[in-house]
Model the fold of this input.
Amino acid sequence: MNKILKLSALTLSIASLYGCNGESTDNVEKSSEKNHFALIEKITLPEGNEICSVGGIQLIIGYDENNNNILDDNEKNTDKSICNDGSLNKSGEDETLLNKAIVNIGMITKGDSQCELGGQEVIYGVDKNGNAALEVDEIEDNIVLCAKGELTPPDALINALTTTNSITEPNSNITIEALISNIPENSTFVWSDAEGNILTPKDLTKPELLNVTVGENEGTEIYQLRLTHTDDNGKKSIQTKKISITISNLKSSVTSIALKEKQVFLPEGYQTQAVSGDITGTVIYAKPITKNAQAKSITTPESTELVGFVSERKPLNQGKNANDILLNTITSLGISNITEYSKTVLSNGDIAASYNIELTIAKKPTDLLSEMMKKIAVNKIGGNIDTLIPAQSEIEKKQFQFDISISFNESTETAVITATLVTKDKAELYSDLIASTTSESITAPIGTTLKLHKDSYKALEQKAAKSDFLFVIDNSGSMSDEQDEISKLTTDFIDTMNETAIDFNVGVITTDSDNLRGNGFTNDQSQIENDLKPGIYGSGIEKGIYFAEKALAPTTGTVALAGYPRQGASLSVIIMSDEPSHYDSYPKPPKPFDPKSNLFVDNQYKVYAIVQPKDAKDSQYDDLANATLGKSLNINEINEYKTFVELIAQNSGVIAAGYDLSMAKVNSILSSSIAVTVDGQLINRSKLDGWEYYPLAQKIIFTGSAIPMAGANIEIGYQYVEAQKTN
Done:
């Protein structure tokens, strides 16, 4: 006799779900227009059948997609069998086995690593010891039925998995923590490794913490937490989440946050804090934190100056690419005076941007972050999260710096957002940490095999490296203040080049001429200052790209005729204009300009654009900067010029004298994983005396006293995600 069983979120014996006539009892959850539940069709198998020679039970499982309480042929998903072990009654319908067979059914939550939209899980087996529960050794198998969008799953139980040692040495001990705002009662934690071996927490009173010893071989190990919660009505909610650990002899202190589809790797200097609600993510703090057990509120640790968050969500009708999502995300904040001053598109398509915020009413950083997270970090429109409580040490301010990066996967339509917030007067102190958090590639798909690579070099004489710069300055009537400001920064520019010990020269043209100003290329400070102020009586038709292209023409251009760029030198082009690029205006070129296919791209000249963001839709300056992996700056944000000019100098230095991360050419580098040694000595990351990584150049460069002697042995170790092969 066949019976149809409808899955509920209960642990029940098969017999107790239905009476002998196969009709459901009151224990069964009714189907609705919104929820399509799974069904089990039970078939008694007589002795001598092909599946179970000793007789048994066959379970055929699938979703009742048309809600007719019948498992139609096209709805059947899988079938499993429970065979007699020879000790049970085998005559007729096997009532003894029927009573001992248990089906454990649970609802899979949101944010589960197996089912993106939630689902239902069936665990079945035979209660051999008669205690009315399935022990581990009694489980025959489990079946996961992922929802297709029609199911309303329970809220996620696990916010994220984290570890501060995601890149660790062989045979070392690490701690993995499940971030759960409030661990529910009647919860079961089951930790396991990639092979399914059960791992037991060291302290059973803290099941959310797992201590493990990694293996002796370099590579990647994956660990998983399965959390099951049973409510007062006996209904089960189940969630699984995975995290990967990299074993390397070149360890790096990296905090890893495993979300739903992506794993985020933060550089050293952060602690995380669980936040519950409509969010897949975590709050991040730049100072050590003390856990606060108060429900529905999270207090910022004392002395914290930089706060932020990491979250993963769908686009929520905000666009189908990272740039559109960024623009609509910022608009949704509803802050009247928020100004984008810099934006970068990385080689993997991630987009990073920096904003200045000017509030009319002063706020504490945590209060402002809490408001922002409720608008842009949540995973559903109108979602809500725990309230963030400021530390007593926080001071209300009106001016803030907000940095954000968005990594968008078009195939899964998933966006990972990483953001930091700091008062403007403290931004410079945290510039390194902010850059390595929101301006570099720090995400990878969960479960992806993170590969290790080491590049080895013999140190070269850094002073022999050469960098050339071509500035293209708008000399129309509205540019007086901007010219004055960038001219004043010549000292900072030269100081930055001297820190990296690079041989450099600067040439300047205007947006209406390809003629080099002054005596042409020079490293003389007074001439550079003068050349950067060409006056305001030039043409109002700004053709920065056109004249830069003309000046850089091979053999015939003014730059080439002057002997530049020099043999072996890098060339950076900086275009500064407060108007759109009038490339097609008189004199009209033979063909339209293509930002993705041109002289700059072909020669690997990096272009930087100091322009008006409001002109982006009509201009090609920022498009060219993106295509050459350069960077854009808002020309109106004069206070940001100094940082931008220093960045241009640093990037140029690393192109000329830096050391390649060879795997970055076609793969995605996790920059937070980089570890560098010189003659076996570990070198710290530092702009002053250490090394710095520049994702736009995909190289590292040494600075200050850390610049190695020629011939020294340099080793650069890092993780990367292998590029997907295309047919």
About this structure: The two ends are 50 Å apart (CA to CA). DSSP finds 13 helices and 40 strands in the chain. Residues 2-146 form one domain.
